[in-house]
């Protein structure tokens, strides 16, 4: 299978690839240490959204990958690929499963993101969804790659209490830089955060991730990892739609809501970003959820309300003064098993 090109290097000469800092190889004669039990599942460390990159030498940077967060468990009995919500998607990523079996390790847990790259080597969430058959689909993706950025368990040793620098040292020994297989290394980039963000935005990427160099791996959104985006992209609940006689599949506009405590509040709509395929699949799902009971207060005369079962990934530029999305564009539906967090308003 021909592999898509890697993302263009940032802040470097065009003919020089982005590389992590050189690491010493792992000593194969390391002493025998007591083995730690292998976790059945690890709640992921999540990145906290910030508007600007942090300052200081204790932060390292990576590209932000736009896909599905996964953990790859390499176990004595085989490989398991789990979603962020803990669902087993091994069968849906056969190429990643095969690549995991070929890694030179007996037991391991790799943290990373499944992505599909476009012709310019950029992650494309829509292409990933298409490869899996859309939300609720059961297709097996033959084009998804696994970009791994952390190692939580390695040859019988739980690494979660180790510093990021140590975990990366072992990961880079396991998954070599510049590899072109179905499991690839998300490389650290040694650069000024502001310049790196500007470069990522110029190349059409979603943004960057900043990580504390000396932090252990802590589940949840605690601030050890930060995400800084070029364009805002978040998940919202679809609470209704408006019909159109000219738009694809007759969807003129999706009506969106965010969470506010235990309630849903209307945050505006989106009428762009649909293509021929996803529009008709979406309309079929919407028609099956039509209800007379609105899930959020929506002041739109032509609104057709639906049960709040679908979560859409929406790209947008800003918020209006009255709490509505500006310049919104539809990217696709999140899968329930992906456990995507719906945007919360204050």
Q: What is the beta-strand fraction?
A: 25-35%
The largest β sheet comes out as: 6 strands, mixed
Distance between the termini: 47 Å
User: Could you say what the CATH topology of the largest domain is called?
Assistant: D-amino Acid Aminotransferase, Chain A, domain 1
Q: Unreliable runs, pLDDT <50, ≥5 residues?
A: none
CATH architecture of the largest domain: 2-Layer Sandwich
Report Rg.
Answer: 21 Å
The SSE string, one letter per element, is: EEEEHEHEEHEHEEEEEHEEEEE
Highest CATH level, the class of the largest domain: Alpha Beta
Shape: globular
Number of domains: 2
Domain ATP-dependent DNA ligase family profile: 137-229
Family: Belongs to the ATP-dependent DNA ligase family.
GO molecular function: ATP binding; DNA ligase (ATP) activity
Enzyme class: ligase
Describe the structure in brief:
With 346 residues, this protein is α+β, with helices and mostly antiparallel strands. It contains 5 helices and 18 strands.
């Amino acid at each position: 299978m021909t592999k898509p090109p890697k993302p263009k290097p940032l802040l470097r000469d065009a003919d020089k690839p982005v590389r992590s800092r050189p690491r010493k190889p792992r000593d194969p004669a390391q002493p025998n240490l007591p083995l730690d039990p292998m976790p059945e599942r690890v709640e992921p460390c999540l990145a906290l959204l910030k508007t600007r990159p942090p300052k200081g030498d204790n932060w390292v940077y990576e590209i932000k990958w736009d896909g599905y967060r996964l953990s790859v468990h390499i176990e004595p009995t085989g490989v398991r690929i789990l979603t962020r919500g803990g669902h087993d998607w091994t069968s849906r990523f056969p190429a990643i499963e095969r690549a995991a079996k070929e890694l030179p390790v007996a037991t391991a847990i790799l943290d990373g993101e499944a992505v599909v790259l476009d012709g310019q080597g950029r992650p494309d969430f829509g292409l990933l969804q298409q490869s899996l058959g859309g939300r609720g689909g059961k297709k097996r993706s033959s084009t998804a790659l696994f970009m791994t950025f952390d190692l939580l368990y390695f040859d019988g040793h739980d690494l979660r209490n180790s510093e990021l620098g140590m975990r990366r040292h072992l990961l880079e020994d396991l998954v070599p830089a510049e590899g072109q297989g179905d499991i690839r290394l998300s490389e650290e980039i040694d650069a000024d955060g502001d310049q790196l963000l500007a470069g990522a935005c110029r190349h059409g990427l979603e943004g960057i991730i900043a990580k504390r160099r000396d932090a252990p791996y802590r589940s949840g959104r605690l601030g050890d990892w930060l995400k800084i985006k070029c364009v805002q992209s978040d998940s919202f609940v679809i609470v209704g739609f408006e019909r159109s006689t000219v738009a694809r599949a007759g969807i003129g506009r999706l009506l969106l809501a965010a969470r506010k405590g235990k309630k849903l509040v209307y945050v505006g709509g989106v009428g762009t970003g649909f293509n021929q395929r996803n529009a008709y699949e979406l309309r079929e799902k919407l028609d099956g959820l039509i209800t007379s009971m609105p899930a959020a207060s929506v002041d739109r005369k032509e609104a057709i309300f639906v049960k709040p079962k679908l979560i859409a990934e929406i790209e947008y530029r800003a918020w209006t003064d009255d709490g509505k999305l500006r310049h919104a564009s539809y990217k696709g539906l999140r899968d329930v098993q992906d456990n995507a967090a719906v945007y919360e308003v204050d």
